[in-house]
Amino acid sequence: MDRPNIVVVSRDEQVRRALGGELDRRYGDDYDIVTVESPQAADRLGELADADRPVALVIAGVGGVDTDGIPVIADTRHHHPTALYVAAVRWGDFETAGPIFDALTVGRLDHWVLRPETERDEEFHRSITDLLSEWASRRGNEFEAVRIENIYRRARRMCQRTRYGDQLLPADMLVGCDPDHCRCTGNRGALTAAAPAQPGRQYPAGDTEIDP
Q: Residue 164 — very low, low, confident or very high, per pLDDT cuts 50/70/90?
């Protein structure tokens, strides 16, 4: 099978170079990194689709000269329906927040990330790794590994909700949270990991964990 592609879209050459270079250094062994100017994005994504080349992520610069970054990629979703469409924003560019959240609400975008500020920006790479895991899950690959990772992520989200008011969740509501390493609250070690999830167990976030 052809290697998956990560497509970076921006009108700004510096944005394309920064995103493309950082992605290539970390993921270039397993993914083809494609950078393209915004006006050519639809044609390039169409060419990849016609060639049956899988696309994992389509990352668009949003903000600055990329005033149309969201529609540029949102209007191409039909080419690669399993890809994740992501807005990359500069830290502090708060004017982009409204349009991004509107697009997320109606499904024109899947996620957003902060652009890397330095080489080896681990916050950026943590976001990208999560997105690639989600894409693999959509395609039915590495199901167990992605399922476990998502359980941990869900547990962290539930833990984080408890930070306000210094409330702690009961142990049977914490799935996969490691009590020795949980950093979700200021009281390290106060959380207790639950037993393995049972089929059909309901969680506070509204999710249902189904045992495969």
A: very low
